[in-house]
Amino acid sequence: MKRVVSILSVILLVCAFCSPASAAAQKEWTFMVFLNADNNLDSFGVGDLQEMVKGGGSNDFMNVICLLDRENAPAKLYHVTKDEAKVIGEPGEVDMGSYKELVKFVLDTAKAYPAKHYCTVVWNHGSGWKDINGEIIKGISYDDQSGNHITTNQLTIAFDEIKKGLGKKIDLFCFDACLMQMVEVAYAMKDGVEYLVASEETEPGHGYPYTEIVSGFKKGMTPEVAAKHIVKEYSKSYDGGSAGYSSTTQSAIKCSELNGLKDAINGFCKVALAGNYGAQFKNALNGSQKFYYRTNIDLGHFVELAQNQIKDESFTTAADKLQAALKKAVVINALSGYNTKNAKGLAVYFPASSYSFSSDYKDLAFAKETMWEQMVKDYYKKTTIKKVVKDVVSGDISSLRNYVSSANQNNREISAELVTKLNFSVFAEGGVDASTQENVKSLVTELKSK
Question: What value does the mean pLDDT of the chain take?
Answer without folding.
Answer: 91
